[in-house]
Amino acid sequence: MKVTRKQLRRIIRETWADDDRDFSAPPGEEDYYAPGGEGEKLTDAQLKKNWGPWLEERGLEFDDLDDLAKFTGAPNRTWLPDKPPADGMDGPADLELWARNKKSGIKEIKMKITKRQLRRIIKEELIRESGWNQSLGGPGLSDLPWASVDAGDANISAALAIAAENGFNASQFLNEDSDFDMSGVDGYDALRALDAGFVEQEQIPYETADESGVIRIGTVKEYGITENIGVIDVMGYQTWIR
User: Fold this and answer.
1) pTM of this prediction?
2) Domains of the chain: total
3) CB neighbours of 222 closer than 8 A, spacing ≥ 6?
């Protein structure tokens, strides 16, 4: 199963929620858990009634539920949920993704991830949950060298106007060229921490005569309080706004 970074973060959150279900059939008891066996959870009649319309809408057949069961980690189709989950997810398994790939003939592949990458993803999720500045030892947003926009910042001014038209009002900006020496905060670490703690909620296309990119609107957590913040992203160069 191919897992995106977003899905992996969801897996981590669900693990924290102590979801300790075990879908595997014990060795030697495969017949007990097989369709028609004594351990059958749902009959084919129940599955056809509840899953049939869902499969038909996606151009799939009833027998495809066997592959879906393998995808979710269930012993067989009778151990699937009694009906398609409303959010399209069975634990960490994205059922809509499986259906699209099944219909188009794309085979699922296993994702290879290093321990270093996994540690980084877990760290980023912890930052999102606890506060963007936790890893820095405490500086808040107000401690960063925010600057007001002046006449020489035409592109930033244009971006702020576009953000305001879409309901996000900002008057200050911050980027890697800001005067971090005056603030006593390491600029590289602060900007990385902001990016790791940022939870995106909306994207707004951004274009001027000189450049184009996207304005991402979202939040960061600071001392347990959710703060609204935005970032102008032009080919990877980020300017934070608030």
Assistant:
1) 0.49
2) 2
3) 131, 132, 133, 140, 141
